[in-house]
Specification:
Length: 138
Amino acid sequence: MRNHFARSVPRSVPFYARPLGVLGLCVALAACSEQGERDMKPAVAGGDPARGQGLMAQYQCTACHAIPGVPGAAGNAGPPLDGFGRRSYIAGGIPNTPGALARWLDNPQSMKPGTPMPDLGVSLEEARHMAAYLATLR
């Protein structure tokens, strides 16, 4: 009885190496998949997404923005924040990195003078939590 797998692999590959090659390929693909998932999740040092979600409501970001997962977030004066974690830029020109986002939330006027985004008195620590939440919006 022939192995059905043996028919799809060239005969030049030793019989004992065929299953090991498939196993090795599966392990390599799994490792790449896990690494890709880690790379897609931007880390916000010291940020707690759950706390950030609550802070978004507390600071009434909802008055200007539609924000998924934040109750009452139906504002339309500012852009909707769905998919924010996938965006390349903040406010149209600031690279969307965790550090830049936290600084933006802490003091938007210092990063882009004249921006309509107000300074709400968010501390840098609170901004890190809020940035961590926004990074989860994919």
